Amino acid sequence: MPTIRQCGLGWLSLFMAWPVFAAGPAVWGEGMMVKVRPDDTTPGSATEVQLTAARNEFVSFQVALHGGDTGLQGVRARLPTMEGPATLMGPDVTLYRQAYLTTRQTSESWQAVGRWPDGLVPDTDEIAREARNAFPFDVPANEARAIWVDVHVPQDAPPGEYTGTVTVEGEGGFLRQVTAKLTVVDAVMPSTSSLSTAFLLSPVQVCRAHMGRDDCSASELQPLLARYEQLALEHRLTLPGLFPREPWRPSWEDFDATWGPFLDGTAPTRLPGARMTRLEYEGPLTPDGLRNFTEHLRSRGWLDRAYVQIGDEPPYQSSFSQVKAAGAMVRQLAPDLRTMLTTNSLQLKNHSLEPLVDIVVPLVNHLDGTEPDFVGDQTATYTAFLSRPGTELWTYQSCMSHGCPPGSSMPENLPGAGWPSYGVDRSAAKARAMEWLTFLHGGTGELYYETAGMLPTAWSDQYHFNGNGDGTLFYPGTPSAIGGLTHVPVASLRMKLVRQGMQDYEWLKAVSDAGDPDFARGVARELIPTAWQVPDDGAAFDAARLRLIQRYQELTRGNPAAPVMGTVPDEAMAQRKQSVPGTYGQVGGCGAGPGDSAAAAAGLLWAFWMLSGARRARRRLPAREP
User: Fold this and answer.
1) Do residue 205 and residue 182 come from a single domain?
2) Are residues 469 and 361 in the same domain?
3) What average pLDDT does the segment 399-420 reach?
């Protein structure tokens, strides 16, 4: 007979192996600043998320799932309404299944390759309002998945407390719920961003991704491009040059019918009245083309938002002589059209470019950098340039955030710090930081060189310029990829984070305009000490935003004289009225003054045409890296 001790050990062995201890699937609420990766996400337990927003602001959160030891099949989710002083529903509440991009090369040497959440497949898409194939999906055993939730607070929604319940169901009777509690504050965020943007998009890449070829007709392409513009505006971004470049001049009747609503604020966006903040001239660089363009835009009241690039990152993409020729020609033939140049204050001064440039766009690495000539905050070096009416300082980030040459890496990019980045395999905080830095440096706009660089292969491969996702913020929403019948653009998770940064900018500006710019700058600088010290702590961004909201309420509550969010204070308005392109007089170098004959510009036209050809060639990006 076994002894009692032997029996006890036998029961203990049986008890420890009993399957009741197998971990089951888990569902929990998560903020927007955590990237839920499949293989290294620990199950959470939160059943509630807390949100705060102004009216006409988007807020986002996630519902995360873990398969446990058994996995979960047939997952569906729904959030019918957010209930409070009003009911938020329909287009204002959108659920997405997060798709994963598998990286095969890393953007930073210390990272590991693997699956990153990025493409957001909608349950019902924002543009055509068609049901897509976000649900159902499976969660494999020992892996995580996530659902993204967008809530847009309508302009007329009363302030107060709103509550909604996300119900998650799976096969076998599985059911879990996550509660979202939303506080709507008494402020209205403007539909048109206070920060101008020019996020470029290559039409040929849209043609390739949706039609499988390069020769789409205008009738095929323009409806698609209009959908991309609509989705961009709903993320508070502008795609500035989507109209066909050839043949030129366009049928202005067709142009106005397609793009007029986006420029006038009558397009059917969820942000009512949202307007494009910029429009780029990309037609033939000839006297007739420039004059025809400016005359039409002036007649429609759009000229103040138009610009032309007179070069790109000289001396690398354009020579300084080409830039000077281009600038002089535009000054002579289209003096009311603003000129833009991607360069820095050092090059502006050394090559006497200041009189030819209205919008200077330095790399963030040159605005607050670590390398010789750009060490520390360089904002003061733009003071003289910005003293001339009509000038602006914009910002942009590029592959310089991670290192452009193959195999390179920026030494500042350490875990927990580094440059802002729109890379797939960087932290959520890196994609939200750029607009905070633009505010800190007094910028009035942001340029991004491309949003569809790898669009044809976006679902499987976005490695471009030594980084994953650099130059690609959209996914092609083809029926074969997301279901439905209509081709639409699909937003990336990074695009949502850029939108959040744009909305953060509105809060920074609102606090500043309401009378406490030092507080706004202090919060931003505490969050991001330098441009190369962007933290990976997403919670710190959320906390900083809440401090701004609280301060705005303190400044405006019971004070009818306080500027309302989205309006321009009287002093700033007066300055803006003066800041329009004026008479520039005679330009030096190879430029021709207003009184010179047309023949004197012939050499400039040839040089500028060569420059524009190089610029157009650069925009025709390949479908994938060679």
Assistant:
1) no
2) yes
3) 90
